[in-house]
Amino acid sequence: MKAAAIQMVSAPRVQDNLEAAARLVAQAAAQGCELAVLPEYFCLMGRQDTDKLVVREAPGEGPIQDFLARTAREHGLWLVGGTLPLAAGDEQHVRNTSLAFSPQGECVARYDKIHLFRFDNGQERFDEARVIEAGRGPATFTLRARDGRDWRIGMSVCYDLRFPELYRELRADVLLVPSAFTYVTGQAHWEPLLRARAIENLAWVLAPAQGGVHETGRRTWGHSLVVDPWGVVVSQRAEQGEGVVAADLDPAAQAQWRRQLPALDHRVL
User: Fold this and answer.
1) Strands, E, within the chain: which ranges?
2) Which domains does the chain have, with CATH numbers?
3) Of the listed 43, 52, 57, 113, which one is catalytic?
4) Which of 34, 87, 162, 258 is deepest in the core (most CB within 10 A)?
5) What is the pLDDT along the chain (269 residues), one digit of tens a residue?
6) Which candidate in 33, 128, 133, 158 is catalytic?
7) The one catalytic residue among 40, 57, 128, 242
8) Which pTM does this prediction carry?
């Protein structure tokens, strides 16, 4: 199965971002990808945290969700909308939600980001809990590929990457990590953490990211990549800016690695 991690430099305007996402998903489809994953905040990188509140949608309705369903159906592929803001338990918060759509345009899975990022190095300050309500549990879905093979797909978002227990719980063949890593934390930890999660779980990792200098002045790390179950980066976007990172996910190679090193069967805790 060929899969794509899509890199974006999203703006503070939803419509502009949806047009960019449509263009990039079309590129992935033209390359024969069966799965395309958009980055965290693909639909909006606002000027302030509360901008998310203005564009939030109710589950199952709204222009962003309609776009994802329509685009998946148009290209006949599985499409994961990195994250978008969905309504939360009060008017001051949203859920940072990743949604998976089938080639028929049906929403087959929802994951609300569990771990909320907080960072303060004296120059940059982030505290997602100010406007985001944390999710409560993991999420997976089964992807039936065109060759009839079923893949177990595990969902996560950005800061989740620092919590390996989540990925153990997913027990997935493919781990999705749509992200908007800061430049500082990404430069230090992005690739090592992604490779570690792949190695620990003998799983493929697709990590689409925001990557570049945004209109707001925020700089994100980018370097969207695909890692194989042995921890090797098989495809990566080295430069900043939007683009498509595609790779063939080989189920036979994964099965062989899991047979040779049955670490997943040796778990004690």
Assistant:
1) 2-7, 35-37, 78-87, 94-101, 107-112, 118-120, 125-127, 140-144, 150-155, 174-176, 204-207, 211-213, 219-221, 225-227, 233-236, 243-248
2) 2-266 (3.60.110.10)
3) 113
4) 34
5) 999 999 999 999 999 999 999 999 999 999 999 999 999 999 999 999 999 999 999 999 999 999 999 999 999 999 999 999 999 999 999 999 999 999 999 999 999 999 999 999 988 899 999 999 999 999 999 999 999 999 999 999 999 999 999 999 999 999 999 999 999 999 999 999 999 999 999 999 999 999 999 999 999 999 999 999 999 999 999 889 999 999 999 999 999 999 999 999 999 98
6) 158
7) 40
8) 0.98
